Amino acid sequence: MATAVIEEKSGKVVIRNIGLLLSGDIDHPILEADTLVIHDGLITAVGKEKDCDTEGAKTIIDAKQTCVAPGLIDSHVHPVFGDWTPRQGQLGWIDSTMHGGVTTMISAGEVHLPGRPKDIVGLKALAITAQRAFDNFRPGGVKVIAGAPVIEKGMTEQDFKDLAEAGVTLLGEVGLGSVKAGYEAKEMVAWARKHGIQSTIHTGGPSIPGSGLIDKDVVLEADADVIGHINGGHTSLPEAHVCELCEKSSRAIEIVHNGNERVAIAAAKAALELKCPHRVILGTDGPAGSGVQPLGMLRMVALLSSLANIPAELVFCFATGNTARIRNLNCGLIEVGRAADFVFMDRAQHTAGRTLLESVQLGDIPGVGMVMIDGIVRCGRSRNTPPATEVPVVVH
Ligand SMILES: [Zn+2]
What region does 375 belong to: left with phi over 0, alpha with psi -120 to 50, or beta? Predict the structure, then answer.
């Protein structure tokens, strides 16, 4: 169940007998290595077993020839507090999502908080409280980067400076508050950027009653760091406008589960045609009206690989290394010095695919056999995915 951030360190951990090691790096997605060594939550070696110092490990894991990938990063979630979502009245949704291979989540605004304050002092206080609360408490071990204020008319540069100094690193979706005009959003996004706060803009039609339309011209004028749910959340802009955004903006192209699936495929293809696959990142946009999707990230990977015809090892990079680089996170890539956050996967039992990657390219989601965060095993065989053919074993 839920665990606090402050806990014992992993010590030395060795993961051996890896069948396929996905790097998260879209320029080099598959590594020629079968062993990972970790010390106190960070990767210290990646290589062949004979070349790695595996002596004296506190924990040894036999990956049983399964696939190890960086833990998935959900670029777009709407948490509130703890492991509870009032939107659908559910408990345990973050822990459940960890069973879907997600090890980091990024808040796009704590918008579902009942009675969410919209005055400036109140929205700043909420953001700082949410940032602190999720920094101190990790449901299922998942790193939830929260405290994403929804900007409102009347905010000044000093407000963004105050938020940054208090530890806030993100804005909630621009456009969910009273700031909906391009020129207003542009000024506040620039203030945020100046003070080191990253921004995401809502793209498309209203999400729920009370929210509004953000069209392509507003997205381009505001120039937020992330074109949030470019495929709509739920209602998409016309496909031609989405392709225009991919072409005219240089910002991150975020594709989500709770959006238009046809346009998700079009956006991914447009990014590849424009030779900017590094800009594509994935999220769920859950919890939302569509509910909670513990397997939402894996479903996005399978959707884009199978229907946009993109090799699965590249699509996994959309959900890991691309997001880590764009969001400046110390996870998402298998490299020395990065966080030991991994998902162990194998082809689901009875998939038509002969390998894990082929099964994903055929549209099946993989079976998760283990999830590790900061070098600590958080779950074994997933309670949510179809059963993996083979699962890793903790030797000791
Ligand atoms: Zn939205």
Answer: left
Residue 97 included in any domain = yes
**98 and 124 share one domain:** yes
Looking at the fold, whether 232 and 138 belong to one and the same domain comes out as yes
Give 289 Cα–ligand 1 centroid separation in angstroms: 11
Q: Based on the fold, state whether residues 126 and 197 are members of the same structural domain.
A: yes
Which tens digit of pLDDT belongs to each residue from 319-345? 999 999 999 999 999 999 999 999 999
Q: What region, left, alpha or beta, does residue 118 occupy, with left being phi > 0 and alpha being psi -120 to 50 degrees?
A: alpha
How far away, in angstroms, is 233 Cα from ligand 1 center? 5
For residue 342, tell me if it sits in a domain.
Answer: yes
- Global confidence as pTM: 0.97
- Between the CA of 307 and the centroid of ligand 1 the distance, in Å, is 24
Q: How far is the CA of 228 from the centre of ligand 1 (A)?
A: 7
Q: What is the pLDDT of residue 390?
A: 98
Does 301 map to a domain?
no
